[in-house]
Each structure stands twice: as structure tokens, then as C-alpha cells.
Automatic annotation (TrEMBL):
Gene3D superfamilies: GntR ligand-binding domain-like, Winged helix-like DNA-binding domain superfamily/Winged helix DNA-binding domain
Classification of source organism: Bacteria, Bacillati, Actinomycetota, Actinomycetes, Kitasatosporales
GO MF: DNA binding; DNA-binding transcription factor activity
The UniProt record lists the keyword Ubl conjugation: no
Pfam name, any one: GntR
Location of the HTH gntR-type domain: 18-85
Domain of life: Bacteria
Stated name of the protein: DNA-binding GntR family transcriptional regulator
Amino acid sequence: MTTPRPAARSTAIGDTHPSLRERVYVELRERIIEGDYPAGLRLVEREIADELRVSRVPVREAMQRLESEGFLSVQPRRGSVVAEFGPRDAEHLFDVRENLEGLAARLAARHASPAQLRDLERLLARARRAAESGRLREAVSLNADFHRHVVELSGNPLLMDLMAPLDSRLRRLFRLTSAQADGEPMCGAHERLYEAVRDRDEDGAEALARAHVADTRASAQRLLAALPDAP
């Protein structure tokens, strides 16, 4: 009996690089997160396709995905508009985050390698320098990266999949409130959490992560309510 030969691996660009659809999706998502597309802005599929010099198909698919993730909403007679992000949206986000980030911190304390811990420590040092130098927007972005890294250190692929869409919403929230936020308390909370993870203190890491989410919830709600265009 002849042993079947393994199929040759494809060398198509699409197999080794992000697809055009994915690149369009990431570009539009980042514009929403960074505020280039503010809440309430109407997005016109044809205009975006012309600007990005792509067909309307990947733009349509990207917009459908962003709608399913809560970044866009469809309104009568207006079509797709950038969704608001208000106190209620933040409340829903934090309800989920408190449980998942507590789990992520516990697993990170259990599984993080020495190399991963060094990377996390360097990230914290960069955030601390940015906060102390008054580069608040950079500090907020680096602190958002800290949360993503802790999830990666958990070593749980399913948890990473569950947290990925929350990470984008968290980044948008931090971006909305970055002008009024104080990076110093956030850096301190992250440094304490890092120490618990480094010391393999699973209970302590989970407790600190949950407490940090609770503190961030209260701060975010206050900052969102103070925005001039708060819904």
C-alpha cells in the first residue's frame, strides 16, 4: 500500500501575511480607538474604499465585523455610524473584565516564564517613565498593553480569545479618558500586580487584579461622566 505523500505547503502571500480584509479591519478599528473616527460619525463604505484604495468588499466585511463587536451601529436613514461609548458600556465591560482578569493574573502567576516576567518588567518601566515625564497618552497606552501581556502570560489560548475583543474596547475607553486620567496610580497598581505574579502568589495576584479592575471602574465612570459630549 502506497503511503500518501503530504500535501505541499502553500507559499501564497495570503497564508503568511494578514489578509486584505484583516488589514482593513485593523485600520478602521484603530481609527475608532484613537478617535480619528469619533462617536456619531457616519462611515460610508464607498468613501472608505476609495481612500484606502481597495474594493468595497473588504471594507463591507470589516464594517460588519466592527458592528458585531460594538464599534459601529446601524441607524435608520444614516447607515453605519461610530457607536458611542458611555458609562453603561463601561459598566458592562468591567463586569466581564473583573472575573476574566482575575483568572488571567492567577494563571500568569502559575505559568509565566522568567523571560516573560522580564518583558513585563521592562514594559512597566517604560510606562513609569512616560507617566513621570508627563507623556500621559503614552503611559495610558503602555498600561493597556500591560493588561494584554498578563493575559498572554496566563498561557490559556481560550482566555486569550475571550479577552481579545475586550482589549480593543479597553483601549478605546483609556483613549477617551486619557486627557483626564492620572497615570501614577495605575502604574503603582500594575507594579504591585507584577510583584505578585513574579513571586508566584496566585491568590494575591488574583485579588490585586480584581481590586485594580474595581478601582479602574470607578475612575472610568467618573471620567466618562465628565466628558463634554458624554451620552
